[in-house]
Specification:
- The structure holds 2 protein chains of 2 kinds.
- By secondary structure, chain A is mainly alpha-helical.
- Chain A contains 5 helices and no strands.
- In chain A, helix 4 packs across helix 5.
- Chain A is rod-shaped and about 130 Å long.
- Chain A starts with 7 loop residues before the first helix and ends with a helix.
- Chain B has a domain at 1-100: Rna Polymerase Sigma Factor, Chain: A (Orthogonal Bundle), CATH 1.10.1740.
- Chain B is built from 8 helices and no strands.
- In chain B, helix 1 packs across helix 2 (26-48), helix 2 (26-48) crosses helix 4 (78-99) and helix 4 packs across helix 7.
- Chain B is globular, with a radius of gyration of 18 Å.
- Chain B starts with 9 loop residues before the first helix and ends in an 8-residue tail after the last helix.
- The chains are: A mainly alpha, B mainly alpha.
- Chain A binds chain B through residues 1, 7-10, 12-14, 16-25, 28-33, 35-37, 39, and chain B through 26, 29-31, 33-34, 37-39, 41-42, 45-46, 51, 54-55, 58-59, 62-63, 66-67, 110, 112, 122, 125-126, 129-130, 144-145, 148-151, 169, 172-173, 176, 179-180, 183, 186-187, 190.
Chain lengths: 120, 190
């Protein structure tokens, strides 16, 4: 594939290309170091901004999770209402009043006592 | 990195400098760039034809080298590694130019210190070669530049281009033939 005796073409091709083999650029190393430092600074900024973003996201998540949801609040309210004896008593009283209206002869207190009997 | 140190062989010195670069030593990076940039810019200028683009790409090569310094393993010569990165950037550059064909190639002859008459002939010839090389398909251009300009062995070129040695030889053979054809006006009697 390679000619044993290079022709004029081969020689001039090699000469022409070898003239551009090395091209030293004054100050190039400084430019590279400058670019690398700039990139390093950029990476630090990106790293810190992503850390800050992640921390902010965590903070918001903690706040959101520690606040009870609407459903949980409803459940809690219902449980309180269910466990409230005064509410039960009020229900009984109002039932007693209704019966008293229906039959004025019956004493309201006796109706309440009736409802409070064990096994009622 | 004092001047009193006994100079190491090129490969060993490259390894040592790369170790320092990985540790964040900017002086080592500066030295490494100083050692390798002339050849890299020469190769890239041959590939893209423009000094400004060649410098821009060479800068990117060194930035990538710096990023990869911690992961770099001295399996191959640093020169091969650098030209391999440069070759990939060149491929991207040519793809970009294919998409934006308005970008013109800027071939200019390098000034020499020869006599005026021969300098003119050399300048004409250089320009003709550069224009002819620019017309080669990318693989042929890279292969001919690496073998003739950078004087790299076929095996190293194959490694850089990620191709078998046989393909490299074929590309070089075809490139020579194509260049001869493109420059037939200069070499009719040859």
């Amino acid at each position: 594939m390679d000619n044993p005796q290079p022709t004029v073409f081969e020689k001039e091709l090699a000469a022409s290309l070898s003239r551009g083999r090395t091209l030293a650029v004054p100050g190039f190393a400084e430019r590279v170091v400058g670019a690398v430092r700039a990139e390093r600074r950029r990476r630090v900024v990106i790293r810190w901004s992503s850390v800050t973003t992640a921390a902010a996201a965590c903070f918001v998540a903690v706040l959101t999770l520690s606040t009870p949801s609407e459903e949980a609040l409803n459940r809690e309210a219902l449980a309180l209402v269910a466990g409230d004896e005064s509410a039960t008593f009020t229900v009984l009283l109002s039932a007693g009043s209704d019966l008293a209206l229906l039959s004025p002869a019956v004493e309201k207190s006796s109706v309440v006592e009736l409802f409070n009997l064990p096994g009622f | 990195m004092s001047a009193d140190e006994i100079p190491l062989p090129d490969d060993e010195e490259d390894k040592r400098l790369m170790g320092l670069v990985a540790a964040g030593d900017d002086d080592a990076l500066r030295l490494l760039v100083h050692r390798h940039h002339p050849r890299l810019v020469g190769y890239l200028r041959g590939e893209v034809g423009s000094q400004a683009t060649a410098e821009e790409l060479a800068m990117e090569v060194f930035i990538r080298l710096h990023r990869a310094a911690a992961r770099w393993r001295p399996d191959a010569k640093l020169t091969t590694y650098l030209i391999h990165i440069a070759h990939n950037l060149v491929l991207n550059e040519w793809r970009r130019r294919t998409r934006k064909p308005t970008t013109a190639l800027e071939f200019t002859a390098e000034p020499g210190d020869l006599t005026q008459r021969s300098a003119r002939r050399v300048a004409e010839l250089d320009e003709a070669f550069q224009r002819a090389i620019a017309q080669l398909p990318p693989e042929q251009r890279t292969a001919i530049l690496l073998v003739v300009q950078q004087e790299l062995p076929y095996e190293e070129i194959a490694e850089i281009m990620g191709a078998p040695v046989s393909s490299v030889k074929t590309w070089i053979h075809r490139a020579r033939g194509r260049l001869r054809e493109l420059l037939k006006d200069f070499y009719e009697k040859d």
